[in-house]
Amino acid sequence: MATKHEQILEYIETLPVGEKISVRRIAKDLQVSEGTAYRAIKEAETQRLVSTIERVGTIRIERKKKENIERLTYAEIVNIVDGQVLGGKAGLHKSLTKFVIGAMQLEDMMRYTEAGNLLIVGNRFKAHEYALQAGAAVLVTGGFDASDTVKRLADEYELPVISTSYDTFTVATMINRAIYDQLIKKEILLIEDILIPFENTHLLYEKDPISRYRELNKETTHGGFPVIDDSSKLVGIITSRDVIGHSDEETIEKVMTKDPITVSLQTSVAAAGHRMIWEGIDLLPVSDDHGKLKGVISRQDVLKAIQTAQRQPQQGETIDDIIKSQLRIPQADKLTLEFKVTPQMTNAYGSVSYGAYTTILVEAATAALKTKNRRESALENMTIYYLNPVQLDSTLHIKPLILHISRKSAKVDVEVLSDHKIVGKALLTFQLLDR
């Protein structure tokens, strides 16, 4: 039987897109406490079923597909520009296809404004009116209000009219930055992207005998399985090590590992992979906030996903991507890397920032390891034991030296030079990932 929390989530999913939701209403409709309703609404926000907007409230939104994540909703625009909704609240859940800056004559402006657009403009009331009639929402800059006619049209067409105190250029920059951030988010692999779902997961029940484990082990050749109770709650995990020396008649609950390490659907694949390496585990159960099993991931799934992602073209560049793109390999020495300190890589004093510096060190050491060992590696520890300030426009030469490499780990010493003088030294320890 579904819990009250699950019933609320199911109820929210049935609500029409654009419907306003409140803790009090949920509590009253489903006869639950306001605390239970509040926690379920927060979970719905995590699952991207609802969105909470200041001065508007919480509304049901359409769950975004990952491939369309770069398309913002009007509700997100309100949050980005710290705006106030003047009219058309019922259309906040809709997505915009592009934004148009109204910095031209009215007739010319309307040639560029289509349905699904967002017109960014100041206090030009006729432009507001024409945009709504064309099927576009309106963002009024400079803190100006809209006319009563425009507000009435916004409600009638269910197209938001939003007011913000920022100027047009600032608003356009903020929205552009948000779209860029969404592109980066799109590229980050989450557990939900590679999960083996619950219905396809080989699992055992706590009351099953050990003989059932051995049957499943023989049938699937898998070494470990999650263990659940009758309500599908994760209670443990069982591996071949746990059953050694135990008879077939004993129950699984007596030999399983209780309170296993778990991750959520929103955990990144990279974070899960590192956790599996540090803990030395090959199977990781995925559960929700209430401990219900959602599925599992294996170490092979994680490695395959990371390797596939590395081969995909990037659409939104992070600082790490920018640093990596600026690393060069001089012809003379294929192990040495060259890097020029650009303005965005510096701190307030004009020296290379600590973050950029550490990224350079890790990239150089990782590149050196790949020449000796084709396996993936994960940084375990880094000790920087000498660092001189490196000024803007300096050219750095980064020289990694592998001190030790074994089946499971490696140590790399990295030397950083500028104008043939040593400006930095570091020792990095890596864990090597088994395929």
Automatic annotation (TrEMBL):
UniProt xrefs under SUPFAM superfamilies: CBS-domain pair, HprK N-terminal domain-like, Thioesterase/thiol ester dehydrase-isomerase, Winged helix' DNA-binding domain
Domain annotation CBS: ranges: 195-254, 256-314
SMART domains xref list: CBS (SM00116)
Pfam families: 4HBT, CBS, DRTGG
Keywords, comma-separated and alphabetical: CBS domain
CDD domains: CBS_pair_DRTGG_assoc, hot_dog
Keyword Cell inner membrane: no
Gene3D superfamilies: CBS-domain, Hotdog Thioesterase, HprK N-terminal domain-like, Winged helix-like DNA-binding domain superfamily/Winged helix DNA-binding domain
Annotated protein name in UniProt: CBS domain-containing protein
Organism: Planococcus glaciei
